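Reply to dn_fold:

You asked what the input looked like. This is it:
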Amino acid sequence: MFKHNFMNIRFIKTIAILFFLTINNFCIAQIMVPIIIPEHGFLPGRKFPLYSITEKYDFNNERINVILFDDRDSLKLKKIECSDVEITNESEISSPQMIFKIREYIESLFSQSKIIIDSTSNKVLEIRLEAIDSRLIGIGSIKVHGLCQLKIKTDSFDKIYCTDIVDGDKNAPLKPTSFVTRKTASRFMTSAAIRETIEKILSDLK
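and this is what came back:
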């Protein structure tokens, strides 16, 4: 009798778990990326890093209402304004979830610059993600490009900021001789591109 009850309980638990996973997969499916074969392959790689600010800014705890948009799907840019490298959107970087990494970077770099993000502030800063990608270019001697373009709008001006950072550049996390997987290189350089672009915004806001 005990064994029978245990089996019934285990069966019920199994059904419950399957039901839970089914519901969650249904919900998550709305934000998943279409199945594509990434240019950089399905290779092992470190998690997407969050780099510290390279220049020091002190906004003296100024409060700014930051509103973030993702315009990639509507614009479908093939190049950013500061680079001739084509954006292919064939890697994990094209995921809709990248907007959360942009938000994480804004929160981190603004906090390091003594900016308080406050949704009730009258000073509004719109930040629009227009393009982001990482490309491995070349045969034999491969260069890793991190590409990012953001557009901002304030009460006083609109401006586009973009970055094409290559391994070996100033503030790049990788050197041409760095030994990492393609996925890790892609993540590192894309992360650096985000940081560089947001720092350009901070420089102008100051």
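The beta strands are 62-70, 115-117, 124-137, 143-153, 158-166.
Hope that clears it up.
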